[in-house]
Amino acid sequence: xxxxxxxxxxxxxxxxxxxxxxxxxxxxxxxxxxxxxxxxxxxxxxxxxxxxxxxxxxxxxxxxxxxxxxxxxxxxxxxxxxxxxxxxxxxxxxxxxxxxxxxxxxxxxxxxxxxxxxxxxxxxxxxxxxxxxxxxxxxxxxxxxxxxxxxxxxxxxxxxxxxxxxxxxxxxxxxxxxxxxxxxxxxxxxxxxxxxxxxxxxxxxxxxxxxxxxxxxxxxxxxxxxxxxxxxxxxxxxxxxxxxxxxxxxxxxxxxxxxxxxxxxxxxxxxxxxxxxxxxxxxxxxxxxxxxxxxxxxxxxx
Length: 302
Hints:
single chain; alpha/beta; Rossmann fold; five-stranded parallel sheet; 13 helices; AAA+_ATPase; AAA family ATPase; AAA_22; ExeA_AAA_ATPase_DNA-bind
């Protein structure tokens, strides 16, 4: 059996359903993901100066962006920046590069800003809108966020010449709501925060991926789903990781349906590092941390 098959053949699947590589064929839209996508669409169509999307690592933010980009036509010029850092001027250089505007790295800030402004006006005159997406925006400094806000001050009559979509982890929302960032917050016209899926949705998510892979959707018991939800807080990427290990364990034990005991074994063996990261991350906004993690934290304090 090759590495691609692993447990798939044992369960009668055509492929592994819980790999971490994004695959459009496995796309599952929960209610909140549909709402978040609607907010993104609204932000674009309404020419919102700033649209804010936040959520835990692995909550599906990148999937939302990928689907949004597929829907935009040639009238929208999109620039995408990931993990941008740097001081004044460096961020503007990131912006120009993302929009494919040639720039001399040694140029002064004033020169770069003038080039940026001229480009915005040219695009507007040609009937095109400019959308700048900043992924992992929580890594920006306060000064960086303020510099981005100032870019939205460029307008023509009633129209925004550039729209920003800020995407990041939960702390980004706190950064924007900081009293010192009041002017930035006032420019956020659309926002959505992705929470983890509830237990019912986790069950539907698991069944959906199993069926796409050629299964029945009943390869996990209800008790196993409950345990998975508890341990992952309903974060899609973590659900995938824990389901993958659970099916691997079930294959090894020659069990045809993953039960709560198997999920418990995976957790006890400490191979599910994603769940441990929830325990160790005090900034996590997960409201469903398992009793295991709460108990561990109490023991560590004692």
